[in-house]
């Protein structure tokens, strides 16, 4: 089935299923029921079954899904998404933290460069990558065919920097700033707002 | 209207609206149309209007919402959620990074202590808080009435640590580990999986 028909939230859940099925495969588990897989992914079994039909994967009643074949199919859907070079813009407190974070590289995403209005200011010890001035952004993105950017600038400059990213050819932005970015329809944005996540959780504390 | 009737995703959007309205208020803007507010929040105007009716806020046709009154009402819904002490468990790469991140404290959430199986290992320069051993978790949570935890341990130990958090009295967890946590129904979990966010974005790159 063509790539564009899978909705965004489904792709997100496919990433979850893939990680679970990878672990089952490594542990030499042959089959998994939709109930067990759904529970591990935190979704309803009906949701799981619906998601997996997007690429023609149907479980066998009473037997569940074959782990190896499911792993292979999910990998073929998602694998093309990996090994993307990523740039980070805004090497302040959070940006520097994320440059030090090794979880991206582990999953096939390498932060190849960072940009900041003050290239010298990255904090927290020795960095493996250079912090470049903003006027290098456009040529770097073009020379290295970068499509993906992590945005960790303050809310006040986030839209201006986003416009520069879009102009440079960036197609996808992981936005940590506190504003909602206005982008053309061919650019995708995922928002991670850590303070709002905490506010949301604490609202439900009794 | 009673607190429990507002769904989780609505509360998330209320946090977004609140931040926008706060900024408008600071900039001495009197009224905002539902179209403008919805655009700034990245939602549809119908969604915005529906969300705001949860606490009896109706815009005036042609005039929109009064910024000051909307700001006050959103604050009264969300403010109780702030100024919560937070603990962090897992002071590895990402955990240390988040301890250095000043965005939580800015929004009223103070990380009061961190815990790790190796209390000496936090990276990246001088920390303002102590890294305590795991056997101090239960007494600390109880003595300081902590309800909220940030979980940055590896996936392999995330469920075991979660069980300890729940037993200690933690009611809400911001989970950065790569597994879906199984928790009792009185405990809420929000998941932030940074690598999946990147994978999801890059799936949509053409």
Structure write-up:
The structure is a homodimer of 206-residue chains. The first copy, chain A, contains nine helices and eight strands. In chain A, helix 1 (8-26) packs across helix 4. The longest helix of chain A has 19 residues, at 8-26. The mean pLDDT of chain A is 86. Chain A has two domains: 3-79, Winged helix-like DNA-binding domain superfamily/Winged helix DNA-binding domain (Arc Repressor Mutant, subunit A); 82-198, Rossmann fold (3-Layer(aba) Sandwich), CATH 3.40.50. By secondary structure, chain A is α/β, with parallel strands linked by helices. The termini of chain A are far apart. In chain A, the strands form two sheets. Chain A has a six-stranded parallel sheet with strand order 5-4-3-6-7-8. The first copy, chain A, has a two-stranded antiparallel ribbon with strand order 1-2. The interface between A and B is large, with 63 and 63 residues.
Topology diagram in text:
Two copies of one chain form a homodimer.
Chain A: H1 8-26, E1 31-32, H2 34-41, H3 45-53, E2 65-66, H4 67-78, E3 84-89, H5 93-100, H6 103-106, E4 109-116, E5 131-133, H7 137-143, E6 148-151, H8 155-168, E7 172-175, E8 188-191, H9 194-203
Parallel strand pairs in A: 3-4, 3-6, 4-5, 6-7, 7-8
Antiparallel strand pairs in A: 1-2
Helix pairs in contact in A: 1-2, 1-4, 2-3, 7-8
């Amino acid at each position: 089935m063509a790539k564009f028909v899978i909705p965004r939230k489904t792709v997100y859940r496919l990433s979850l299923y893939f990680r679970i099925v990878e672990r089952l495969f490594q542990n030499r588990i042959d089959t998994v029921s939709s109930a067990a897989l759904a529970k591990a992914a935190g979704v309803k079994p009906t949701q799981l079954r619906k998601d997996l039909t997007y690429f023609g994967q149907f479980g066998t009643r009473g037997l569940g899904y074959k782990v190896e074949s499911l792993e292979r199919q999910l990998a073929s859907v998602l694998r093309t998404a990996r090994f993307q070079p990523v740039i980070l813009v805004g090497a302040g407190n959070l940006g520097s933290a994320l440059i030090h974070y090794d979880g991206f590289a582990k999953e096939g995403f390498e932060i190849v460069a960072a940009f900041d209005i003050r290239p010298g200011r990255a904090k927290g010890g020795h960095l493996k990558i250079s912090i470049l001035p903003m006027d290098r952004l456009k040529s770097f993105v073009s020379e290295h065919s970068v499509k993906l950017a992590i945005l960790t600038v303050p809310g006040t400059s986030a839209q201006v920097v986003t416009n520069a990213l879009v102009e440079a050819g960036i197609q996808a932005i992981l936005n940590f700033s506190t504003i909602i970015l206005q982008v053309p329809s061919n650019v995708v944005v995922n928002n991670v707002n850590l303070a709002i996540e905490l506010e949301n959780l604490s609202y439900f504390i009794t």
